Amino acid sequence: MSPKSLSNFTTLHVGGPAQKLIRATTESELISAIDEADSTNQPLLILGGGSNVLVGDDGFQGTVILVETKGNSYEIDACSGGLLTVAAGEDWDLFVEFTIEKGLANLESLSGIPGTIGGAPIQNIGAYGHEVGEVIARLRTYDRTDKKVVTFTAEQCDFSYRNSKFKKESPRYVVLDVTFHLRNGEMSLPVGYAELAKELGVEIGARAPIANVREAVLRLRQRKGMLVNQNIWSAGSFFTNPILSEAEASKLPVDAPRWPQPNGDVKTSAAWLMENAGVSRGDQLHGAQISPLHVLALTNSGSATAADLIELARSARAKVKDKFGITLEPEVRLVGVEL
Length: 339
Known about the structure:
Blueprint: E1 18-24, H1 27-39, E2 44-47, E3 53-55, E4 60-67, E5 72-77, E6 81-87, H2 92-101, E7 104-105, H3 119-123, E8 126-127, E9 130-131, E10 136-143, E11 148-153, H4 165-168, E12 173-184, H5 194-200, H6 210-223, E13 233-237, E14 243-244, H7 246-250, E15 259-260, E16 266-267, H8 270-276, E17 284-285, E18 288-290, E19 297-300, H9 306-324, E20 333-335
Parallel strand pairs: 1-4, 2-4, 3-20
Antiparallel strand pairs: 5-6, 6-12, 7-12, 8-9, 10-11, 10-12, 13-19, 14-16, 15-16, 17-18, 18-19
């Protein structure tokens, strides 16, 4: 396998070669590599942990930059909590573990999510009722259009469900570092999801020690095959949970999950839709497979190509569309392939 093969740098372990591959270990290296590619009008792909991307079998005809920048600084005050600035290339879950060791709360439900700090705000990663946008104070980016470093406050990031200003305006901004404002405390926010409450042995709405919440979330993710250190090659959840209008949600079966949103819309479960449309755990297409542990994870069983995974995703998507009239949208970033 070519050292430039992008299958080496994605959790799905698929993807053809990069025309040019650069590892950026400092902020100056990252900005220089971006400017060099942009000055020659080369296509540019920024990769962090490679955990939320599906790269096509033909690879990427341009420059791929691996963001491997490291470093953090933090101030923890007994009254105001912790203010932590972390480089884009740092590992997300190691950071979450660090915050809990320091007695800082509000990230515990986001434990076990693969990827890097820089990717977290772009996707506005979330789990069990909480999103990273809730705790971001500001972030620094490199603006490829104006060729300068730009800092955004949380309000300017336009966070929404699995979305942000940086995703909407991709590929203009490249995240350099993120500053988080966390709460001092050994107890979590109220637990809002039944699955997590059951795992913790508490009632919905109760609080639990943050270390216990992290351990419970990691157990749940492990059972679903959503941890990158398992022998399962996936990109996590392949589809996002659909956000429906109240009228659209009223057409769903009465037992379909419904999570009311502040604006009156209703979020439902992509996994429930798939399972009730005839998509089953373990379904296989060539080397691609619906995870035996969780229907929302499409996996590489060892010999999959990107084409295999796309074909399997199309099949699952079509079944949901035929059954419920809902088009599932990918959570995974597609590079050189499309649904």
